Model the fold of this input.
Amino acid sequence: MNPDTQKLYELLGKFRTAMLVTHTPEAGLRTVPMAIAKVEPDGRVWFFTSRQSGKAHDLESNPNVDLIFSDDSANYLTVNGSGALVTDREKINELWSEPFKVWFPGGREDPTITLIAVEPARAEFWDNSGFLKLQYLWEAARAYASGNIPHVQEGEQHGVLRP
Done:
């Protein structure tokens, strides 16, 4: 497996939700919070949506999407990629879990259920968790005291991935 793909898979595992950014037919952007249904080892991210949703209509006209991830531990990740609508009932059944019933009261048999599969093309991360958080806090304090910008370790605290 490509090291960037492995790193992306590890980073994606830190998040339970994402902000999905689609391009509307009117040339605007639509950003909505989404619960992650599954992350595949190749970095593909799966979401549930309704066939009638705005984001589903957006993907029909423009598959380019961005995913934005953030957590309380100072981990940040953006993923640029291509989104596709998937109506395969076998895949829906595989990914279904009871919490999705909040959006689909009819359960996994709801005829409007559609999956969104996001295939990553590029990702950028900022990881300040664990020891890296201590390093960043030290650098930030040092930078503040000296009037400089904090040093961020490329590859560990920040990096660009091409899965």
Notes: The first strand starts at residue 17 and ends at 23.
